[in-house]
Design a protein that fits this description.
alpha/beta, 37% helix, 174 residues
Length: 174
């Protein structure tokens, strides 16, 4: 897959699993911009179906537009009729990595490793509300406070500001 050259060209998506302190499992859908390294969204819930992924992407489209390409593995949520049909309606290219080759989606895999090491492995969440709150606070810090070596010491938000001259042809115009 070619490298990206501007913001909102390609987003990578993946799932992370964790459990509340009572043992009930929950999932996190992570969405990362491959160029800016920005964590665009993390959706946290007990169940995240293909329809739910499509709703998250619809919400993001209303807020910021959509990329040209979505990249992910071959999980059932990503290969569902809801995803395939939704992508066709808005003309997004879906790029599926090869089965068993997670490093083909390295940007989101690296992000997920940081999320796991820095937040999920360090905290026990009594409720889904607590998990969502902690995840969103961590995401804010990741995007706005933490410098990234891959971005020459800038945060993703600082990097976006510096690259704001890159046009996003997919931004919706209201």
């Amino acid at each position: 897959m070619p490298t990206v050259a501007r913001p909102n060209e390609r987003w990578s998506l993946d799932f992370v699993h964790d459990a509340l302190s009572n043992g009930r499992k929950f999932r996190l859908l992570t969405i990362v911009d491959d160029f800016t390294r920005e964590c665009i969204a993390i959706e946290v819930d007990f169940s995240l179906t293909g329809e739910r992924v499509t709703r998250v992407l619809t919400r993001l489209a209303e807020q910021r537009g959509l990329p040209e390409i979505l990249k992910f593995d071959n999980g059932s949520e990503f290969t569902s009729n809801a995803m395939l049909g939704g992508a066709a309606q808005v003309d997004i290219d879906l790029h599926f990595i090869e089965p068993g080759r997670p490093m083909q989606n390295g940007s989101v895999e690296s992000f997920n490793g940081r999320l796991r090491d820095e937040l999920l492995n360090e905290h026990s969440f009594p409720t889904l509300f607590h998990a969502r709150s902690a995840v969103e606070a961590w995401r804010f810090d990741y995007n706005h406070v933490r410098p990234h070596t891959a971005l020459d010491g800038l945060t993703p938000i600082e990097f976006i500001r510096q690259t704001s001259n890159y046009p996003n042809p997919r931004l919706s115009v209201a």
